Each structure stands twice: as C-alpha cells, then as structure tokens.
Recover the amino acids of this structure.
C-alpha cells in the first residue's frame, strides 16, 4: 500500500526522507527530535540546522540525513496545543502538507513521518491522527510516493474510546463458537437478493438441494464479484483511484477489470467494500461472490463488521482498532 503505519524506531527506517518534529530554533531537545540528531550525527546535523535559522510553525526546511538510512531530513515545526481554538489544526495540517510537497519537489519515492506534535507539544493523539490521515490519504492518490507513519507501538495511536467500547460490547454480544453459528449468515440473508442464490446457499428450508440438477443449480448463478463491483462503480460514477484509494494496488485493480474469474484475496475484497461504504448486508453479499465471508466465529471479522455498522470505513483506523484488540491487520486476515 502507498500508505502504511509501521512499528519501528524512525531513526532506523529506510526512506528517501525522514520527517523530524523540529524545534523552531536551531537547536534540538528530547523525544523524536533528539533521537534523530543523535542517530544522524549531532554536530554535522546541528551545523546544517543553524544555517537555516528559525523555522515558523507549520513550515518546513531540509538538511542532509547524514548517518540515517535516508537522503534528506525534512524538519517541520508543529503547533503547541492550547485548546484547539488557536489555529493548532491548521498548523498541523500545514506540517504534513508542506512535508509531502517538499518530498515530491526533492523527487523522493518514500517518506516517513512520526505522529507530529503529540509529544512535548501535547497535541491529542486521536485528533492528530485524523489530521494526518486527512492530508496523507488524498495525497497518495495523486503522487507516486510511499508514505509511512512510524510508531513504536500502534497502541500509542488513539481511536475514540467510545468507539472502542462499542466494538467491545459488539464482540461480547456476538462472539460465538463455530458450531453454534454454522450457516447463520445464510439463515439471516436468504431470499434477500430477488430470489437468486449463490451455488450452495440455503435458500429455504423447503428446498431440497439434493433434488436439483447441476443444470438447475448453474442456472441460478449470480454476478461475479467483479461484475457486481463494477456495476456499483458505474452506478455511482466513480473513477478507479476513488475506489482503490491506495489500499488496493493498481495492478490488482487492473486484474479485476480484465479477468471476470480473477479471485481477489480477502483483504482486497474487504478493502473495496469499505471503499464503497457498503453496509453489512451488502458487504457480506460482495464477499460471498469472491468466496469469502465475515465469520461470526472470528474476532477480527466481527471487529470489521462492527466498524461497518459504526460507519467506520477507513482501513488505517480499522487496522489500529484490530491492533487494539490483539488481532492481525486487515491484509493478514484469512
């Protein structure tokens, strides 16, 4: 994916540009700023930084990366949090936007960010993440650049506590073992698609599938995942980039366009459903067309289902929520 959140020490990340949450004055302090200076070589980096002088909040400047596994350090000065009513959001948004613009100007193919201003400057982490995503995700659609958000631990990225509590309640109410939930999806959804059923679906307790001929079963085949996907896309007048949004590669999207029988993996199928903001029933229907489902016996699948119910469609945020509950990222859900 063009945008990823990774667990690492930002000073050890290999990228063309590393973003430093800099001091406005030509000096350095603790936290990410101090760690970058130490890893790059304090004396040489400080000498370059002193040539620049003061950096206004929300602005950027560039130095060589010296000993880091990067070509450049993009220094940006974040806002000091007061109460959110003193331009903090605009300043933080500018930090991300100007850093990305500078990376493109420098012809960088990759850039690594910390979560800017959430340390000593005190910017609330959940709101800082919202700002970062609002700038980065649209940017990667129009630029050929990989963007990394680097954190020591994803649990340090905060999602609304009320949402986490709601999802926990949903899991508690719905997490059942497989023997009790077998065929539950089919029972819940039978007959909701105008009489047509997928091969093997339990349509009605009165229908004895064993008495149907193979020809009769085949005659009930519905649209493939691809056919239904592009039908929805056409109905909504969407473009490719608006649909895959950096979560699905252009190559995979092209395969879906070209091959009616291409079977997307579960991550791709879920990511496209999220991108289209499908509800739970629509998502289950789409996944079944690719041979997948959101299983009631999988905690990760239940979390995805709960997120859809709560209209949380952002793949990055869902990954953070999955991590909060000790589950694999979406791309690793089987």
């Amino acid at each position: 994916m063009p945008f990823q959140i990774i667990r690492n020490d930002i000073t050890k990340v290999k990228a063309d540009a590393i973003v430093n949450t800099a001091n406005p004055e030509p000096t350095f302090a603790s936290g990410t700023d101090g760690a970058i200076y130490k890893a790059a070589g304090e004396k040489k980096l400080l000498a370059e930084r002193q040539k620049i002088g003061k950096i206004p909040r929300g602005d950027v400047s560039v130095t060589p990366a010296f000993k880091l596994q990067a070509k450049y350090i993009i220094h940006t000065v974040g806002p000091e949090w007061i109460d959110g009513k003193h331009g903090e959001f605009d300043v933080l948004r500018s930090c991300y936007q100007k850093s990305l613009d500078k990376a493109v100007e420098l012809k960088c193919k990759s850039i690594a960010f910390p979560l800017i201003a959430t340390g000593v400057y005190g910017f609330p982490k959940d709101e800082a993440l919202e700002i970062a995503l609002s700038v980065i995700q649209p940017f990667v659609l129009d630029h050929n650049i990989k963007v990394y958000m680097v954190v020591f631990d994803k649990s340090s990225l905060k999602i609304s506590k009320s949402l986490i509590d709601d999802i926990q309640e949903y899991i508690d109410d719905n997490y059942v073992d497989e023997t009790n939930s077998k065929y539950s999806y089919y029972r819940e959804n039978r007959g909701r698609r105008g009489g047509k059923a997928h091969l093997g679906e339990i349509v009605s307790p009165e229908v004895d599938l064993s008495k149907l001929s193979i020809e009769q079963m085949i005659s009930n085949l519905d649209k493939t995942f691809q056919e239904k996907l592009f039908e929805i896309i056409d109905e909504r007048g969407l473009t490719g980039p608006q649909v895959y949004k950096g979560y699905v590669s252009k190559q995979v999207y092209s395969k879906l366009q070209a091959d009616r029988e291409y079977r997307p993996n579960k991550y791709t199928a879920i990511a496209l459903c999220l991108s289209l903001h499908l509800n739970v029933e629509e998502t289950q229907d789409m996944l079944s067309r690719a041979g997948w489902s959101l299983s009631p016996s999988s905690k990760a699948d239940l979390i995805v289902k709960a997120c859809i119910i709560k209209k949380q469609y952002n793949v990055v945020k869902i990954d953070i929520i999955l991590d909060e509950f000790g589950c694999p990222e979406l791309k690793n859900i089987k």
User: Anything to note?
Assistant: Residues 88-105 form the longest helix (18 residues). The first strand starts at residue 3 and ends at 7.
